[in-house]
Amino acid sequence: CLGTTWTQEIVPLIMSGGDPASVETLPNWERVPWLEEIQAYTFNLEQRASPRMLTTHSPYNMMPPSFFEVKPKVIYVMRNPKDVFVSSFFYHGTASFLVNPGPQTDFLHKFLDGKVMFGSWFDHVKSWLNAEDKEHIMHISYEEMILDLKDSVGRIAQFLNKSLDPEVIEKIADRCLFKNMKNNNMSNYSAVPREFMDQTKSEFLRKGIAGDWENQLTVAEAEYFDSVYKDKMKDVKSKFVWDLKTLNGNN
Fold first, then answer.
1. How many structural domains comprise the chain?
2. Residue 134 in 3-state DSSP?
3. What is the Cβ-side half-sphere exposure of residue 75, based on CA atoms within 13 angstroms?
4. How far apart are CA 124 and CA 188, in angstroms?
5. Which residues of 120-143 are buried (b: 16+ CB within 10 A; e: fewer)?
């Protein structure tokens, strides 16, 4: 999810007090490694200074036992599932190590049935919304970051107990604008060989907008998505930014 990639840009800058070297010297998969990737074992993470920054796609109930003992701070990034679907569809068409998504409607059904990498979006989101130790978890949405990046950076810094001057927060927000992050070769996955990720088919960092699903889904697909969403989320009390009509318009 682009929201996660975005956070891999924001958090190192916050922790370094805005030092651009924090996002210019290491590719993001090494800067904030993925726990579930075997490559993480080669980074000698236990030798890194605390606090360590890590990323995961895992649902709450699949986190390792040490997670529940240490209780680290977690920034959980959510996104409109329609846009998550669109992003995933294009990514599957780009990455050779993933199954070809096939026709869009077929992949849509797989996505909504949870028969995709990392399982059901609905189960994933609900697992983290219902997590224990809520004071250690910050929930933020991609849409909130789109609407006010500077405010989002400030809130993340506060959650991480990093006191930064307003000028530094503004500098970080500017550095993390989508157009700037897209030009950062340590973040745009341009270093990944084409045999693994063919960005001539679709760029890893595509548009950086909210609501792109409107350009991609047919009316029938959107209506079916809505019906499944309504059923799967009927027991969720949380309100999401993407449910507001202002975000269902053109962006």
1. 1
2. helix
3. 27
4. 25
5. bbbebbbbbbebeeeeebbbbbbb
Contact between residue 107 and residue 89 where contact means Cβ atoms under 8 Å apart: yes
User: What are the structure tokens assigned to 25, written together?
Assistant: 């010297």
Specify whether 57 is catalytic: yes
How open is the CA angle 40-55-166, to the nearest 5 degrees? 130
Look at residues 241, 238, 176 and name the one whose alpha carbon lies nearest to residue 211. 241
Q: Pick the catalytic residue: 57, 109, 124, 139?
A: 57
CATH code for the domain of 209: 3.40.50.300
The one-letter code for the residue type at 239 is K
Geometric angle at alpha carbon 77, from 226 and 86, rounded to 5°: 45
Cis peptide before 51 (omega within 30 of 0): yes
pLDDT digits (tens, 9 = 90+) for 128-173: 999 988 899 999 998 999 889 999 999 999 999 999 999 999 999 9
User: Among candidates 212, 213, 194, which has minimal Cα distance to 204?
Assistant: 194
Picking from 242, 227, 217, 246, the residue whose alpha carbon sits closest to that of residue 86 is: 217
Q: How many CA atoms lie within 13 A of 43 on its CB side?
A: 20
Structural domain of residue 58, as residue ranges?
4-247
91-139: per-residue pLDDT in tens?
665 664 566 777 888 989 999 999 988 889 999 999 999 998 889 999 9
Report, in this order, helix, strand and coil percent for the chain, each rounded to 5.
55, 5, 40
